[in-house]
Write a structure and sequence with these properties.
The chain has 207 residues and is an alpha/beta fold. It has one domain: P-loop containing nucleotide triphosphate hydrolases (Rossmann fold, 3-Layer(aba) Sandwich), CATH 3.40.50.300. It is built from eight helices and five strands. Helix 1 crosses helix 8 and helix 3 runs antiparallel to helix 4. It starts with a strand and ends in a 5-residue tail after the last helix. It binds thymidine-5'-diphosphate (TYD). Thymidine-5'-diphosphate binds next to helix 1 and helix 4.
């Protein structure tokens, strides 16, 4: 049996962690065989790469190095965690994947979608999720909801202007990749979670 690969995307403070936790509770209740994992990280080697990327002291890191490190962490995590789980027939829910690189490094850092697509297809050999859920809330609204950014995190500390570019980067992907479905996050966390669950049903990911 072949599993399904679902990735969850969104800007800083979009509520990904909360939504994934609520989703996991429902999947468990319904007896679905699944794992939850995250990028960058999710395996020993990839977590070590994550520490280098996010370390606030690494101010000299150039954009290309950052993009390549994300791609390196991604392929390690894919081979070690995602693909084995899929081949056991599990549903894999992954917090961030290649669309984060397209939005953050491609759009906001300015490397362009094409550069990110090239290095990731080289690294991953075209490994595409079955469904990508984009939690659609602007960074301004998200930061207001969570009362500001985490200044110790090198990416999160970049300021509203950077995160607006990330947001526009995500919006630019919606037409390009039909696998990405936007979920509006204006309501309560429960309402958003109901929408996500319904989406998984509508797409035939769960019964
Ligand atoms: P994390 O603390 O996991 O943030 P979040 O809870 O918002 O997911 O840190 C991951 C950071 O890495 C986040 O700022 C987004 C960024 N990122 C990229 O810039 N490119 C990528 O390819 C990925 C996977 C993450």
């Amino acid at each position: 049996m072949k599993g399904a690969f679902v990735t969850v995307e969104g800007c800083e403070g979009s509520g990904k962690s909360t939504q994934i936790r609520l989703l996991a509770e429902k999947l468990q209740r319904d007896g679905v065989d699944f794992i939850v994992t995250r990028e960058p990280g999710g395996s020993d080697v990839a977590e070590q790469i994550r520490t280098i990327i996010l370390d606030g002291k690494n101010t000299s890191m150039c954009d290309e190095c950052e993009a390549l490190l994300y791609a390196a962490a991604r392929v390690q995590h894919l081979r070690e965690i995602v693909q084995p789980a899929l081949s056991q027939g599990k549903l894999v829910i992954c917090d961030r994947y290649v669309d984060s690189s397209l939005a953050y490094q491609g759009a906001a850092r300015g490397l362009g979608y094409e550069y990110i697509e090239d290095i990731n297809s080289f690294a991953l050999k075209e490994f595409s999720p079955n469904l990508t859920i984009f939690l659609n809330i602007s960074p301004k609204a998200a930061f207001e909801r969570k009362h500001g950014a985490d200044k110790d995190d090198r990416i999160e500390a970049l300021g509203l202007e950077f995160h607006e570019k990330v947001y526009r980067g995500y919006l630019g992907l919606l037409d390009k990749y039909p696998r990405i479905c936007a979920v509006e996050c204006g309501g309560s966390k429960w309402e958003t979670n109901d929408k996500i669950y319904q989406l998984l049903k509508d797409k035939g990911i769960i019964g």
